[in-house]
Amino acid sequence: xxxIDIACxxxxxxxxxxxxxxxxxxxxxxxxxxxxxxxxxxxENLKAIIExxxxxxxxxxxxxxxxxxxxxxxLDEFIQIPNKSEIIIYIxxxxxxxxxxxxxxxxxAVSNYIVKPITIExxxxxxx
Length: 128
Fold this sequence. Notes:
Layout: E1 4-10, H1 14-26, E2 30-36, H2 39-51, E3 59-62, H3 71-78, E4 88-93, H4 98-105, E5 110-115, H5 120-127
Parallel strand pairs: 1-2, 1-3, 3-4, 4-5
Helix pairs in contact: 2-3
């Protein structure tokens, strides 16, 4: 995998965001971060970036359980936006519900489903 320029974290848990950013910094995973605290905020900001032809994140780490819009609502809307850039989406969630795991497989845009917490090993697997 090429060097990640921008990683986008969509999660409402400040402890998860802090820890994930720290692990990414320690492993030189990426240069920059975009942080959004719910799916609607992420959708609106990423849609504006696409419309303005600005630099999109290379990777999105998406939580499922968030206020306002959950991860599924974000995905359903985000995949409707015409976009020529390839963005790798990982669902990173505390949900071990088999229904969520199966649902994630139905989205072509989702690369993998990872149960929290994120670890250096899991991050290195993403980089392959």
